[in-house]
Design goal:
This protein has a 4-stranded antiparallel β-sheet with strand order 3-4-2-5. The chain has a 3-stranded antiparallel β-sheet with strand order 6-1-7. By secondary structure, the chain is of the alpha+beta class. 31% of the residues lie in helices and 29% in strands.
Length: 172
């Protein structure tokens, strides 16, 4: 939390594709604490579950707020396959939480007090780059580690051109 900045310029050490999940909630009615607080707490429970088992594929995360109503987590994953495996696994919290939401929706018991959303992006190697200047490890750099920017290129075009050799070729 109080990490010291790394002097100079660094870039994320990620090799291969980058999988980014943005997932969050919006409080539609502040007074309905009994509706949105359990949703917020369930996200923290899922993050703890994932942190206890690194083999599930979560590499790192950043908690953010977009407004007093909207809160979200930027998550970095090893692969879309591991993300999907976690989300659909019946023994994991996510599956159980969505089962509750789906049951309430079918029964007409959702009252629109809290909104849920997610967006998932798979960025093939060569389609992302990063730079951190006098920053502690952050974002993709915290999820994958950092290297001096010179290892990948001083300019964004050079970092975009970096290939690790471990990236899987894109299908035509």
């Amino acid at each position: 939390m109080f990490a010291k900045p790394i002097p100079g310029r660094t870039t994320a050490a990620r090799e291969g594709d980058a999988v980014v999940l943005l997932i969050g909630m919006r409080v539609n009615h502040f007074w309905a604490v009994h509706q949105w607080l359990p949703v917020a707490l369930s996200m923290f429970r899922m993050l703890r579950e994932l942190e206890r088992d690194p083999g599930r594929g979560l590499l790192g995360r950043v908690l953010l707020t977009a407004s007093p109503r909207t809160y979200y987590v930027v998550q970095y994953w090893e692969s879309k396959e591991k993300l999907y495996a976690y989300a659909s696994s019946p023994e994991m919290l996510h599956h159980g939480m969505w089962s509750i939401v789906n049951r309430k929706e079918r029964a007409g018991r959702l009252r629109q007090h809290v909104g849920l959303w997610h967006e998932t992006y798979v960025a093939p190697e060569g389609s992302y780059e990063s730079i951190y200047f006098d920053m502690p490890e952050f974002g993709l750099g915290a999820a994958s580690g950092v290297v001096p920017v010179e290892k990948r290129g001083r300019y964004a075009k050079d970092r975009f051109a970096h290939r690790s050799g471990s990236a899987t070729p894109s299908a035509p």
